[in-house]
Structure formats: C-alpha cells, structure tokens
Design brief:
The complex is a heterodimer. Chain A is built from eight helices and no strands. By secondary structure, chain A is mainly alpha-helical. Chain A has two domains: 93 residues, no CATH class; 65 residues, no CATH class. In chain A, helix 4 runs antiparallel to helix 5 and helix 6 runs antiparallel to helix 7. The longest helix of chain A is centred in the last third of the chain and has 31 residues. Helix content of chain B is 35%, strand content 27%. Chain B contains eight helices and ten strands. Chain B has a six-stranded mixed beta sheet, sandwiched between helices. In chain B, helix 3 runs parallel beside helix 5. The longest helix of chain B is centred in the middle third of the chain and has 14 residues. In chain B, 48% of the residues are buried. Classes of the chains: A mainly alpha, B alpha/beta. At the A-B interface, helix 7 and helix 8 of A face helix 2 and helix 3 of B.
Chain lengths: 183, 224
C-alpha cells in the first residue's frame, strides 16, 4: 500500500508538471482537496502541511509575476503548493517507519551498486527528524536574542543556528553509533 | 567485566585522561568529577565511541580498538540530552528503530517495543510525537530505545542532569532494578550514594576509588 502511495505521489507530481493552464491546475487543486476529504484529514492538519511554504509560495508568485505574467505566476505557484500538499497527504496518512521500510524495499536493487538502502532510508529519516529540531533551535536563538535586546540581525541569528545545528549533528552521529546503527 | 590498562587520552594537546589502570567487575559503578575532569571521555571509552591514545580498554573480553562495533551491540549508552538520541517521529517508532539492524519479524519487533514501553510507563504515549514529550519522558524513551536491545552493560553520561527531582528519582529507581552492569557518570551524588563503587576523576586522573561514602566525601572536599 505504501509503495502504491509513493508511486501515486510520483505520478501526481508528474501530471502537475505537465499541466500548463490555471484552469487545469484549479482542476488538480479540486482533486487534491477531494483526496484530503477522502482521507478525512482535518482542515488544521491540512493547513499544517502548506503553512511552512506559504512565504516561499508568495515570493515565488511575486518573482514570476515580475519576470513573466499572471497566468505563469499562478501556474508555477499552484504547481509547487499542490506538490507539497500531495506529499503532505502521503506523510499524514503513512507512519514514517512504514514509509521508510517501503523505501528500503524499493531501493533494494541499489545493493547491486554497493549502496546500502538502510543508509539511504536513514538519511531520509534524519532529514524528517531535523525539521522540528531546527524549528525549535531557531525559536530558542530568537528568544535568546530578544532576551538580550538584540534587534533582528541575520548574522546574530545565522551563526548560533549553524553552530547549534552542527553540534546537534555531531551528537546525533555519536548517538547513532552508540545504538549500533553505523556498522 | 571492564578492564583499562595504562589508558591515556590526549586531545588538542591536553591529557584528558592519564594513566588509568582499573578492573571493574562490580554491578553498579558511579563516576564523579568536576566539569572537564574527563568523566564523559571515560564513559565514551567504554563502548568505543572514544579510543585511548595510549593503553587498552577491554570490555567483555574485547578490545575497543579492534572490536568497537561488536562492543556497541552489547554495551548500551545513554547520553545527557535525549533530544540527540531520538530519531523517529513517534515514541514506538523510535524504540523499534533500534531493532532495525536485527532483521526481526514485524510482530516480534512490535511485541518487544510494547513490552519495554509498558515496563517504563510509556505505553500510553506509544503513538505520540517523540519530540513533544516532557524532558523526563524523553529520557525514559532514550532509555527504552537502549534497553530494547538488551545490552549486557549500560553506560550513562549524566542521565539526570536535565531532569527535575521527580524524574531524577524515577530514573534512580529504574537504575536500581536493572539487571545489567551499570557505569553512571553523574554530578548527582544522591544517585551514586548506594552504588557498589565510585570513581572520582580530577584533571584526567583517578583521585578516589572505593565505596560511595569515602569516595564521594573526597569529591566534596575537592569541590570545597
């Protein structure tokens, strides 16, 4: 079932790339909404999938509007948002461990070229895991800045964020070794 | 059994540990010392996360320099910060993740996970997002993820430092009942008070070694 979902996601994204008019994308949006309804995903959970890309989508729309025209901006932005929505639907309806097990099975042929599917799925696991951790780290950095009365500064934000992320990566690598997952 | 012979660790032109020769057959061993005394490096030596610059460390008869991967399968390690150890999105998935390399059938993995979560009071949180647990629950989850592998030895690096009094006491109770050999690095002197043996490190050297009362007394004097 999970393999089918992932194949469906790949097929859905391919179709979205092929659609070229705002009307066609509107039709695709209706299909995606219907899929969310069928999966009984609550509106708040559905919005939670799109919310993180809202500013990126806005920037993309404005850039396209300046460089091309309104239909092109609409098509490009809707395409990206619908792809994120489709991917979000798969993650909402599939436990991460089940998805990773399916990926590991799907990537099994890579053993022929000496790539360990476990390591690839582990990398994807860690990528998923890093999202809430980095969000939390960014929040703490901002709080520390505010506590010291520092107004917004890219350098004052980026340096502790990068240092914190690298420290976490080191600690996580050590923890994975300690759990015997590095051999 | 853990054996260190003439062990020294040198990092960034500084002797982090120096001249340690020890045999540790006791079941519960505590390690105390000031910040920077070499306690964490000592803990990391015991499952091959750190290697000695000089001397040898043998754990369960194996040399950590030659058989670190084998040793890590039998020596569990619990870090101070559970956030660094939690990998999967939900509690049950994170515990099951430890078993992925074992190649066990799904049903067996599920049964082992359920058993360990029930034993440590996390069964009701099995499907909850792991990163939303409280600090104490996260440390318990990290412990479950280690114990599900049934290690022969458990090494812990300051397991109660980030916990409140209630959670520290819960961890202490759990440690008391574990059948494994334990090596616990801690500043929490109450935690180590009923251990079988306590080592005190200062600037990389062993300065006290024996029953908790005199050893921890020596540590208190050092800190005065």
């Amino acid at each position: 079932m999970t393999g089918l979902k992932l194949l469906g996601l790949a097929a859905g994204c391919t179709v979205l790339v092929l659609l070229q008019t705002p009307a066609a994308l509107a039709g695709a949006a209706a299909v995606v909404l219907a899929l969310y309804a069928v999966a009984r995903v609550r509106p708040a959970a559905a919005w939670g999938q799109i919310r993180p890309v809202r500013w990126f989508a806005l920037a993309l729309f404005v850039t396209q509007l300046l460089l091309a025209d309104l239909p092109a901006a609409t098509v490009t932005t809707m395409r990206v948002v619908l792809m994120v929505a489709l991917a979000g639907l798969v993650t909402l309806t599939t436990p991460a461990s089940v998805m990773l097990a399916a990926l590991e099975r799907g990537l099994a042929p890579l053993r022929l070229v000496r790539v360990d599917p476990f390591r690839v799925s582990l990398m994807l696991t860690l990528t998923l895991r890093s999202v809430p951790l980095l969000t939390d780290l960014a929040r703490r950095v901002r709080e520390a800045q505010r506590a010291r009365g520092v107004s917004w500064s890219v350098r004052a934000f980026a340096v502790p964020l990068v240092v914190g992320a690298l420290r976490h990566a080191d600690a996580l690598g050590e923890a994975l070794s300690a759990r015997g997952l590095d051999d | 059994m853990i054996e260190l012979t003439g062990v020294g660790v040198r990092l960034a032109e500084r002797d982090v540990l120096d001249g340690l020769t020890l045999t540790l057959p006791e079941r519960r061993i505590g390690v105390a010392g000031a910040n920077g005394s070499g306690k964490s490096t000592f803990a990391r030596l015991l499952n091959g996360l750190a290697l000695p610059t000089t001397g040898t460390v043998r754990v369960l008869g194996m040399d950590t320099r030659r058989e670190a991967a084998k040793i890590r399968r039998r020596v569990g390690f619990l870090f101070t910060d559970p956030d660094a150890q939690i990998v999967m999105p939900t509690v049950a998935e994170d515990v099951a993740f430890s078993l992925r390399r074992r190649g066990l059938p799904k049903a067996e993995v599920a049964a082992l996970v359920e058993e360990v979560l029930s034993r440590y009071g996390l069964a009701a949180h099995a499907d909850h997002p792991a990163h939303q647990l409280s600090g104490g629950q996260k440390q318990l989850l990290a412990l479950c993820s280690v114990l599900v592998l049934e290690p022969d030895i458990l090494v812990m690096d300051e397991p109660t430092t980030l916990l409140d009094l209630r959670n520290s006491r819960q961890v202490a109770r759990i440690l008391r009942d574990l059948p494994q050999q334990l090596v616990v690095v801690s500043h929490d002197l109450a935690l180590l008070a009923d251990f079988d043996r306590v080592l005190v490190l200062d600037q990389g050297k062993l300065v006290a070694d024996g029953p908790p009362e005199p050893a921890l007394g020596h540590y208190r004097d050092l800190m005065a």
